[in-house]
Design brief:
Rossmann fold; globular; alpha/beta
């Protein structure tokens, strides 16, 4: 599903190149639940952004579902992202001027789902995440934990092939966090590939494979 070869990310500075990722070689099979761990500044979130095609400034080879991402134009990468990927960001990335309902509807509109079907899917998701009462509120009217729940709901609503989660439970209390991880586990059992970045050993235990980074290098 995902093949990375000699992937590198760096910034040019007055003293030369400053590397964020170095010579990353990684294969992820469809249906895996992979955890990426490492100290702050190790390059974990950067690697997740590259896999999610949100960062296009890197060197190396990247194959995704048979597509040569390193040869694709930015617009083609965006379309690939919309078609296959759900992303849970550490900082939510909800659209401020849209309600909770409208934020959940956005990923479905990208996939050309009929409006009647979209309405049913949004309502089901609101119920599933116990946020029906929040449907007409804007992100600024929600607590951090509520915003994170909406962000997770938005990532999974369109049944993506791949879910990328950057500290998905970082702003949730323990009960909510466990519910989210159990949801990821069920999605994975149903065939969804999941890659999570976490500092939590408890969250890492839900995965079936661990990738560790240190100073931009893979160390296992």
């Amino acid at each position: 599903m995902i093949h990375l070869r000699n992937l590198e990310k760096y910034y040019e500075g007055s003293y030369g190149r400053s590397y964020v990722l170095r010579r990353i070689n990684l294969d992820i099979r469809e249906g895996e639940f992979v955890t990426i761990m490492g100290p702050s500044g190790a390059g974990k979130s950067t690697l997740l952004s590259i896999i999610g095609m949100l960062d296009g400034a890197w060197a190396g080879e990247f194959e995704f579902f048979g597509n040569q991402v390193h040869r694709m134009k930015p617009k083609e990468r965006v379309e690939l992202n919309k078609k296959y990927i759900g992303f849970v960001f550490q900082s939510y990335h909800l659209i401020d001027n849209l309600t909770v309902y409208e934020n959940l509807d956005i990923p479905l509109s990208y996939r050309n789902v009929k409006s009647s079907q979209r309405a049913a899917m949004v309502c089901d998701t609101l119920d599933r995440f116990h946020i029906v009462a929040k449907r007409d509120l804007f992100p600024s009217q929600l607590s951090g934990g509520q915003q994170q729940l909406v962000a997770v709901a938005r990532a999974v609503i369109a049944n993506p092939k791949l879910i990328l989660a950057d500290e998905p439970t970082g702003n949730l209390h323990s009960t909510q966090g466990k519910e989210i991880m159990e949801l990821f586990k069920r999605l994975n059992e149903d065939g969804t590939t999941i890659i999570q970045v976490t500092h939590s050993e408890a969250n890492a235990a839900y995965g079936n494979r661990l990738v560790q980074l240190a100073d931009g290098w893979m160390v296992n």
